[in-house]
Design goal:
alpha/beta, Immunoglobulin-like, four-stranded mixed β-sheet, 2 helices, 8 strands
Length: 144
């Protein structure tokens, strides 16, 4: 094999690798991001701010979650059921929830235990549950 035949083959291979590296990446799966954005004390209650980002291609008309609040030792304090409505596709919505009789400082972590309801055209509870991605901006972990 002469150098004349090796160089074009090597160049073609390099070009193929370069072009392959700029091909579009596989699409990210659709997500329903739920962020614990803030916990603020309000009188004898704790106010929880959840930021919802509907990354699904469908508006969510109603969403219900079961959340479990743990204290600083990891012991379950209470189970909450929160509901939200009007979560348009591709949009963010901040929703506030009052945790009655709870001191925010006593919250150690919060678990998204289940999606108990999810309404929207073609949506069901399982679709939304599979799409949930939990995160937090607070020092309190918010997990799935």
């Amino acid at each position: 094999m002469s150098i004349r035949s090796v160089v074009p083959a090597a160049m073609a291979c390099a070009v193929g690798v370069s072009l392959g590296s700029i091909a579009p990446a596989a699409a990210e799966p659709s997500r329903l991001a739920i962020e614990l954005n803030a916990l603020k004390s309000a009188a004898s209650d704790c106010q929880m701010a959840l930021l919802f980002t509907n990354g699904l291609a469908i508006d969510i008309d109603a969403l219900a979650l079961e959340l479990v609040v743990f204290d600083g030792d990891g012991v379950m304090d209470r189970v909450l059921r929160v509901k939200s409505s009007d979560l348009p596709a591709g949009r963010k919505r901040l929703k506030l929830f009052k945790l009655e009789g709870l001191d925010c400082a006593a919250v150690g972590s919060i678990l998204v235990n289940d999606v108990t309801d999810c309404d929207g055209a073609g949506l069901d509870r399982k679709t939304c549950a599979d799409a949930v991605q939990a995160s937090h901006k607070t020092t309190v972990p918010f997990m799935r």
